[in-house]
Design goal:
By secondary structure, the chain is of the alpha+beta class. The strands form nine sheets. It has an eight-stranded antiparallel β-sheet, with no helix packed on it. α2 (about 115-135) crosses α8 (about 395-405), α7 runs antiparallel to α8 (about 395-405) and α11 crosses α12.
């Protein structure tokens, strides 16, 4: 027997110990699914744990003990369009990691990459933002978290190895004064591995850590007498980004989410006062210890004045060099309203969360990087259309750093912000002060018509006629100027981008614009136009805002209808067999009164979606969906056929109004596609007192079809022509009249490119 044991030991010594540590790229198959995923594995004292990346988001791998050169990993992997739990037995074979069991396949080590300066700063910015929005202490403690980031930037830039980079991050975290939010050492075991409880009479030692909670709960009934109610847990929940101007929105908010504590009941006949020893590795039991202290049943002694209290489910974020930061996302909430544990227990009052503006023409370099960090994190958590962006927002963060650093003037600073904002492909994006830096415009309207830049309103400018084609502005062809303009503002759709660029085509910093025009007869002329306006002004439509057309149909211009005129307008057109509603622009508030008279029942008009964040972990985020109902009442409903005139000037509220006309009146849309930008606007403010606006919530058609980056599509496509513009015709309105005069056809929703 002894000889057999010796031989077995010898064999074990001859087999090299399996070390699964490192980054792996795996090609896995499971249940008919195959795909490539990345894993980061850590091995300490025979325990393997780590992270798996899915669509760029990290998810924890449960700890597993290495036995006979094998470990069992519990993974979350894509399975038939959703995340599925999968167990995989892994073993090493040379430089490959082999998967067996529910998952099959293999993985190869990914050579470690040395993060460059931009990657190091990007990692710092990401963890700063996660803590900014979800660490509970920042809701009520006077911590200058902006200053903490600014102070950490130089050290993070200089750090060319793991240790100095970890030290730079740790110095930033120290500003919180929270020992639970810290850089994790490489040697730290997962919280639920190893460790245990050591008991000597009434003294209970919890400093070894491990999966303490179930063990302590099973032990306590024999040590205490009576019922003890545990404190609850509270964490910050956020839905949307609360705007930084004076406006107030009911659907953008942050609040406290509270989970009630349970009850522990004991049956000891002669309980003695308990003494608990805790340290940094003691986690998951502080609600129990606090309740016992409050009940006078226990005393808690902290090792060197520190403890591992970190609320519930702390979040671990992976940074460059494999640095891992564990951050608190929740805290104890006691029955008396206080929060925290031990000496840190307090009764806080929430603070104002207005962002600091740092006024001045050009912030210094560290505060320009603070602007980037703030903007990136606001968009990261609160922009609703990440799935429609053409590039990963994560990848754009390090790429944007050089432009923010190099900005030597306010103009260049605003341009850096604007260029980053173009990647949202959001028509609501606006950088305050940007267009003032570009200059002014003449009182001449230019629109895209038949692929050319055409004057649609001369504004009284000498030498300019409606229908003139713009050939050059200040020596540049329209295509070149359009490209330059779209580098600073990229709307959601091609039609909206073309409209925006043509509206600003004549902008410039010189007092006059030198414009070359093609006249109706083919003659080219050059004119000098005074740039007198800060913004382009659309040409005014003429005629009454509501009237009966000669063909017997009603017409209401919803962009000009005054408040209080809606009922009179609808009464005027009530007997008409067809009604034309003009939405080629932004509607007045009277649009709601018109919409209420188009149906006798409340019908869905749109689906509004927002992400509700319960911490920085995307796995805890919830997509909330709300079905909006339309308006009714105010008078007898209009019973005739409804036609809506649309083009790319219809954006945001105009498109929302279209959604209601679609469901309430089965309206036919005539013209061209709308801008494809909807969802109420919010804003943040950046150093230099720069306001950045963007779409804050997602809107879809009532039946779930995509609206953003598509627009409302016409049932009948009608585009203006150069000849029609020169002749003074409204060809879209003519198309609507022709449609109504034709035999009745019930339109159907036009097909869309996405659902």
């Amino acid at each position: 027997m002894v000889r057999g044991a010796v031989l077995a030991l010898w064999a074990a010594l001859l087999v090299p110990a399996a070390d699964f540590s490192g980054r792996w790229r795996a090609d896995l198959g499971s249940g008919g699914h195959s795909g490539v995923v990345e894993l980061e594995l850590r091995q300490t004292n025979g325990i393997v744990s780590g992270t798996i990346w899915l669509s760029g988001e990290p998810r924890a791998i449960a700890p597993s003990r290495v036995e006979n050169g094998r470990a069992t990993l519990v993974l979350l992997v894509p399975q038939k369009g959703r995340l599925g739990r999968m167990e995989a037995m892994v073993r090493l074979e040379g430089d490959r990691l082999l998967f067996e069991g529910e998952a099959s396949g293999s993985a190869r080590r990914v050579p470690p990459e040395k993060p460059d300066r931009a990657a190091r700063l990007a990692g710092l910015f990401r963890v700063w933002g996660a803590i900014k929005f979800f660490h509970p202490w920042l809701a009520y403690k006077e911590v200058d978290w902006d200053a903490a980031l600014v102070a950490a930037i130089p050290a993070a830039e200089r750090a060319t190895a793991r240790q100095p980079y970890a030290a730079a991050v740790a110095r930033m975290l120290a500003a919180l004064g929270d020992p639970a939010t810290r850089v994790l050492p490489d040697s730290e075991l997962p919280a639920d591995s190893g460790g245990g409880i050591l008991r000597r009479g009434a003294a209970i030692d919890l400093r070894a850590g491990g999966n303490l909670r179930p063990r302590l709960l099973s032990l306590l009934p024999s040590l205490i007498r009576g019922e003890v109610r545990l404190p609850g847990i509270r964490r910050i929940v956020r839905q949307g980004y609360y705007p930084q101007n004076a406006r107030r929105f009911s659907f953008y908010y942050w609040d406290w989410e509270v989970s009630e504590g349970g009850v522990v009941e004991g049956h000891a006949t002669d309980p003695a006062p308990l003494v608990f020893h805790v340290g940094e590795r003691t986690t998951g039991v502080y609600d129990i210890l606090a309740a016992l202290e409050d009940a006078g049943m226990a005393t808690v002694i902290e090792q060197e004045g520190r403890n591992g209290e970190c609320g519930e489910d702390p979040y671990v974020m992976e940074l460059p060099y494999g640095v891992r930061v564990r951050m608190r996302t929740s805290e104890l909430l006691h029955l008396d309203g206080s929060v925290g544990f031990g000496k840190a227990r307090t009764r806080p009052a929430d603070l104002d969360h207005t962002e600091k503006r740092y006024p001045g023409a050009l912030p210094d370099r560290p505060h320009r990087l603070l602007a980037l960090a703030r903007l990136w994190n606001v968009v990261r958590y609160f922009y609703p259309y990440h799935d429609l962006m053409e590039r990963s927002w994560d990848a754009l963060l390090p790429e944007a750093i050089p432009a923010f650093e190099a900005a030597a003037s306010r103009r260049e600073y605003l341009f850096a912000i604007a260029r980053l904002g173009t990647h949202l492909c959001d028509g609501h994006v606006n950088v305050a002060g940007l267009w003032e830096e570009l200059g002014r415009v003449p009182p001449v309207e230019v629109m895209p018509v038949e692929g050319r830049a055409v004057v649609t309103h001369a504004g009284g400018a000498a030498g300019v006629d409606v229908g003139d084609v713009v050939l050059a502005v200040d020596g540049k062809a329209p295509a070149e100027r359009i490209r330059e303009l779209l580098e600073l503002h990229m709307p959601a759709t091609p039609q909206a981008a073309a409209l925006h660029a043509h509206q600003w085509l004549l902008v410039g910093r010189e007092p006059q614009a030198r414009v070359r025009l093609l006249k109706a007869g083919g003659r080219e002329v050059e004119v000098m136009l005074e740039r007198t306006l800060p913004y382009p002004q659309p040409r005014p439509r003429t005629g009454p805002a509501f009237r009966m057309l000669p063909q017997g149909f009603g017409y209401i211009d919803l962009t000009r209808l005054e408040n209080g005129e809606a009922f009179h307008a609808l009464d005027l057109v009530s007997a008409a067999p067809g009604l034309i509603l003009d939405l080629r622009g932004y509607p007045t508030q009277a649009h709601a009164e018109v919409a209420a008279r188009l149906t006798v029942r409340r019908v869905p008009r749109a689906i509004v979606e927002m992400t509700e964040w319960h911490g920085p972990d995307p796995a805890r985020a919830v997509r909330r969906r709300h079905h909006q109902l339309g308006w009714i009442g105010g008078g007898p409903p209009y019973r005739g056929k409804v036609v809506v005139l649309i083009d790319a000037r219809a954006m945001s509220l105009a498109e929302h109004t279209c959604l209601y006309f679609d469901t309430a009146a089965n309206a036919a849309f005539i013209g061209s596609a709308t801008a494809g930008t909807n969802g109420d606007v919010t804003n943040t403010v950046l150093p230099g007192d720069v306001e950045f606006r963007f779409t804050g919530l997602s809107v879809r058609h009532a039946d779930g079809r995509q609206l953003q980056r598509i627009g409302v599509l016409p049932h009948v496509r009608v585009d203006p022509t150069i000849a029609g513009i020169r002749a003074g015709r409204d060809e879209v309105l003519e198309g609507a009249v022709e449609f109504l005069a034709a035999p009745a056809v019930t339109p159907v929703n036009p097909p869309t490119a996405a659902h």
